[in-house]
Structure formats: C-alpha cells, structure tokens
Amino acid sequence: MLDKSHKPTWTSFEQATKADWDAVMEYEEAYNAALPDRILDAIRSLDEDWTPYPINRYEHSLQAATRAYEDGADEELVVAALIHDTGDILSPYNHGELSAAMMKPYVSEKTHWILKHHCVFQGYYYNHHLGGDRNARDRYRDSPYWEDCRYFCHEYDQKAFDPEYPTKPLEFFEPMLRRVLNKGDGHMELNEKAEG
C-alpha cells in the first residue's frame, strides 16, 4: 500500500534519492496495474451516438476482435483487433501509431507493426475515392509483416461494419486484454542498454 503521508521534497530528478525512486516505482506499479481498466474505458468511449458508419467505432472494435477470434487468430492479435482504433480518441490522423505505441511493451514486433501500419493498409479500400493512392501500402512491401497487415485489414478491420454480425461483448475480450497486458518487460527505458 502506498504511503500517502510522505510528500517528496525533491524538485528535479537529479535531486531524488534511491528511496525516492523506490517510492515512485511503488506508485507506478499500482498505477500501471490499472492500465487494463483505463484501456477498457477508452474502448467504451468509442460508443458514440452519432456516426457516419453503419455501426460506431465501439461496435466496430468488438466486431473486428470477434472476427479475429472466430478466425482462430492468437490472443495477442485478437486484442490488437479490439484496440486498433482506440488511438482515434486522441489522435485521429495517426491513430494507428498511437495504438501501436500504447501496446508496444506487451506485444510482438509483428503485432506492433500491424497496429502501426493498419491505417495505411486500410486506405486500399477508400483512398481512391478521396483522391489518394489506394496502393500506398505497397511502399512497405519489403516488410516481413506486409501480408500479415494486409490480412488483418482485409479479414478483420475493413469488413467489421456489419450491424447483423454476431459480435461478442466487451466482457468476452476483457480477460484476453488483461492477459496480454500482464506480459511485457515493464519500463522500456530500463531495458535499454548503453552503446559502446
């Protein structure tokens, strides 16, 4: 349990002691343990009343995850399908990069790459209607994950707008999300090694 009676007196990182950093890490451990709840809240926030799509982004996220699950995708990819558009909340023009960054400590390089690039790959289905290049995804053809991302978009993302599709509820995916977020190496900066 966190000791809330002790207020730190340092005003810059260089003044903080080992004991101070131990207290910070204790706080962060408790805060980070609640990450699944914050991500679930972010997913729920996509449940807007008005949308120009046949279903809203919340239903789309659940449907994409359901399609991945029904297709036999591994749990990490099902969770990626569930959260792939949560970056829309804060960064609609590069939401894939935000969703990927959020999940980087917990998923494989392949899943991270798919999340980061899914927006460009989705453009294949509509860019040409908007004056863009539908083949923009081809600039990534040399990636070992190109086909994985194409498949993710084709099978899970672009077709997940069907109001009649038997979509599973968020509660079904919650244990999967919690398991995926329970993996990882923690603070990425602590795992960085000095060069030389």
Automatic annotation (TrEMBL):
Gene3D superfamilies according to UniProt: Hypothetical protein af1432 (1.10.3210.10)
Protein's recorded name: HD domain protein
Highest taxon, organism lineage: Bacteria
Species of the source: Ruegeria meonggei
InterPro entries: HD_domain, OP_Dioxygenase
Domain HD: 57-128
A Pfam family this chain is assigned to: HD
